[in-house]
């Protein structure tokens, strides 16, 4: 939408003048308190014809929309009884004053169990019906469906999942016609015949001295993020970062390095270790951009593990940001991070104490079998990782 006349209506002096979309909606539903959905509000345009975002201020502001004026009708309307629902993928392109008049409800992505239920009860029957096929002719096992979700469709929604399921239906239909078979059964064993090799592989948990598993939020949900610290040589002192890290993550690394330098003796490491050590901190998958304030605790643990010559020998993952004084700050995306840990068979986590409420709000089937330690200061993290 580029023209504010679509909201406010055209003045009747113009040829082809029409009332605005809101008046048209009222005419269609014939009630004064409808639910009006403004889809993809972050895609509003702005041109010489006008600024629809400014026109929407009058529509969505509860102080003004009692007397909304449509230019075509030239009669004031009461929009205060309307429930407006707006959707957006990103908040960055929504003007600040407009965003201020809305209550924000963030919807996190579907987890694997939810996708499984949606695919089983909605997507799969819909696709079969669209292609005039029955469940008796094409059967998809639950294990194969889980493999489709984990290996081919890890995005937050289910659009990619629907595309992959439709590929299976199309190829099955061809198989039924060409081979004149009565039925086609799709299982984990023959899934690759229909979809090819999996796009996503199961994340491996790396172990060793100076290697710690972190947790990251991504647009596709959550992921485990191994962080590696290594001593390159002992000729001079230095610190090097690689892994295509953003500015925020580089700051986290520098804070982690400074904190570790200042507290080596406190955590039972050699106080002179970094004096003659050139340390390299690396986050694998270097071509993938990474940023966000949630890796401070993980980076500090990797550096401390290197200094203490203490490898973490159990599946353990952590997330949290660190300050120079050792306080562990809360982070976002706890739901997605817990899912990522479960996917990699990690059932012991360290989370910031301030995120305890976020964890407690998770469904029981996500918390089942998990051991979670909540940390207020880095001392709490070190106690869990290295023992008291």
UniProtKB/TrEMBL annotation:
Lon proteolytic domain boundaries: 206-388
Record field: catalytic activity: Hydrolysis of proteins in presence of ATP
Catalytic EC class: hydrolase
Presence of keyword Hydrolase: yes
E.C. number: 3.4.21.53
Active site positions, chain numbering: 294, 337
Entry keywords, A to Z: ATP-binding, Hydrolase, Nucleotide-binding, Protease, Serine protease
UniProt cross-references to PANTHER family, sorted A to Z: LON PROTEASE, LON PROTEASE HOMOLOG, MITOCHONDRIAL
Family: Belongs to the peptidase S16 family.
Protein name listed in UniProt: endopeptidase La
Organism, as annotated: Vreelandella olivaria
């Amino acid at each position: 939408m580029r023209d504010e006349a679509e909201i406010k209506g055209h003045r009747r002096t113009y040829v082809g003048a029409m009332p605005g979309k809101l008046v048209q909606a009222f005419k269609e539903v014939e009630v004064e308190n409808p639910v009006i959905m403004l889809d993809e509000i972050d895609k509003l345009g702005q041109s010489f014809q006008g600024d629809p975002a400014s026109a929407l201020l009058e529509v969505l502001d509860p102080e003004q929309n009692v007397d909304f004026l449509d230019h075509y009708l030239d009669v004031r309307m009461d929009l205060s009884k309307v429930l407006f629902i707006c959707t957006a993928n990103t908040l960055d392109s929504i003007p600040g004053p407009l965003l201020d008049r809305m209550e924000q409800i963030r919807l996190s992505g579907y987890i694997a169990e939810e996708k499984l239920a949606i695919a089983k009860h909605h997507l799969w029957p819909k696709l079969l019906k669209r292609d005039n096929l029955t469940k008796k002719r094409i059967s998809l096992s639950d294990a194969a469906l889980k493999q489709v979700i984990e290996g081919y469709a890890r995005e937050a929604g289910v659009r990619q999942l629907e595309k992959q399921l439709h590929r299976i239906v199309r190829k099955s239909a061809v198989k039924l016609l060409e081979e004149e078979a009565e039925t086609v059964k799709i299982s984990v064993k023959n899934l690759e015949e229909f979809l090819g090799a999996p796009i996503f592989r199961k994340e491996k948990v790396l172990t060793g001295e100076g290697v710690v598993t972190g947790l990251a939020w991504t647009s596709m949900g959550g992921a485990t993020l191994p962080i590696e610290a290594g001593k390159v040589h002992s000729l001079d002192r230095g610190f090097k970062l690689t892994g295509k890290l953003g500015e925020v993550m580089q700051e986290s690394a520098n804070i982690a390095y400074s904190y570790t330098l200042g507290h080596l003796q406190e955590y039972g490491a050699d106080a002179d270790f970094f004096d003659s050590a050139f340390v390299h901190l690396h986050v694998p998958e270097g071509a993938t951009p990474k940023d966000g304030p949630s890796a401070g605790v993980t980076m500090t643990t990797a550096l401390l593990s290197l200094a203490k010559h203490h490898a973490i020998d159990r599946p353990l993952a952590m997330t949290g940001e660190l300050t120079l004084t050792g306080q562990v700050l809360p982070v976002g995306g706890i739901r997605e991070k817990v899912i990522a840990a479960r996917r990699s068979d990690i059932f012991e986590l360290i989370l910031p104490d301030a995120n305890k409420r976020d964890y407690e709000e998770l469904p029981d089937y996500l918390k089942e079998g998990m051991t979670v330690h909540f940390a207020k200061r880095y001392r709490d993290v070190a106690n869990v990782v290295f023992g008291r």
